[in-house]
Write a structure and sequence with these properties.
By secondary structure, the chain is α/β, with parallel strands linked by helices. Helix content is 32%, strand content 26%. The protein has 9 helices and 11 strands. A 6-stranded mixed β-sheet has the order 5-6-7-3-8-9, sandwiched between helices. Strands 2-1-4 form a 3-stranded antiparallel β-sheet, covered by helices on one side. Helix 5 links the parallel strand 6 and strand 7. Helix 4 packs parallel to helix 5. The protein is globular.
């Protein structure tokens, strides 16, 4: 598929604040989410990550400004946003296939009347984008955690969004499913040049996949490359660990983070 470019250059968050019941949930959050980049929000529980996502999606009122601007700093009037939640709550015994589930979103026609050829083709294309073609006829309730997240990803990218928001989408997914999901996300980012915002607690994966990292604790404590953020005093204060045991490697065509192989680690594996 040919690489596509979007009109949106960045989502600019400027002094975004959220209060509820007299309590400050976010204060003066300023950061950019750029097209063609995977931006990752990290922080402890209660740091405001989900609150920031809800403000970004327009679900809760906020102070400050969230602007969608192009390369010449002109306002983009409409932002197409895709969203993948952490979990999908549904009755797993429902006789609904993956194809039925996606077709109900892709067409105004009730699926019990049948799925048109055009809608079925759109479903297959969306599943192909996430390497999930084999899931079409599978009951939704019989999908594994990783398979279900790929189905939700297929739904979120139809039509192709300017901004894709992933709220801890691989929490509880096994390692194979997790890496398949994130490899797919990186491929989508590169093909469609979309801006992607990911919330994750898996710091090792953040190091491997992120282009830009923002450490949040009601406000942005530090942001930048994984290298800069993980080596910062703010990161060490929040998580109690530094970056000294990691080195960079080439993954997905860019500098990413992988564990450094040392004589101690090799000896530990041999003695395990």
């Amino acid at each position: 598929m040919a690489t596509q470019s979007c009109s949106l250059c960045r989502i600019a968050l400027e002094n975004v604040s959220v209060s509820r019941g007299g309590q400050s949930l976010l204060q003066d959050v300023s950061m950019h989410i750029h097209c063609g980049q995977l931006t990752v929000l990290i922080g402890q529980n209660g740091a405001g990550k989900t609150t920031l996502i809800r403000a970004l999606l327009g679900e809760i009122p906020h102070g400050g400004a969230i602007r969608h601007v192009d390369g010449e700093n002109r306002q983009v009037p409409r932002l197409r946003t895709g969203y993948v939640p952490q979990h999908l709550q549904f009755d797993k015994e429902m006789p609904v296939t993956v194809e039925d589930f996606l077709a109900s979103a892709f067409s105004r026609r009730p699926v019990w009347t049948g799925v048109s050829r055009k809608t079925r083709a759109a479903v297959q294309e969306a599943l192909r984008e996430v390497e999930g073609e084999a899931l079409a006829k599978r009951p939704l309730g019989r999908c594994s955690g990783g398979e279900l997240q790929r189905v939700l990803l297929a739904l979120a990218i139809h039509p192709t969004p300017d901004l894709l928001v992933l709220d801890e989408p691989v929490s509880g997914v096994d390692q194979n499913g997790l890496r398949l999901f994130l490899d797919t996300v990186i491929r989508l980012k590169e093909q469609h040049h979309m801006a992607i915002l990911l919330v994750s607690h898996d710091l090792n994966l953040v190091r491997q996949y992120a282009d830009h990292v923002a450490l949040l604790d009601k406000t942005v404590l530090v942001q930048g490359t994984p290298d800069a953020v993980f080596a910062s005093p703010e990161f060490q204060k929040v998580f109690g660990v530094g970056a000294r045991n990691l080195t960079s490697a080439r993954i997905h065509g860019a500098d990413r983070w992988t564990p450094r192989v040392t004589s101690e680690s090799i000896e530990g594996e041999e003695n395990a």
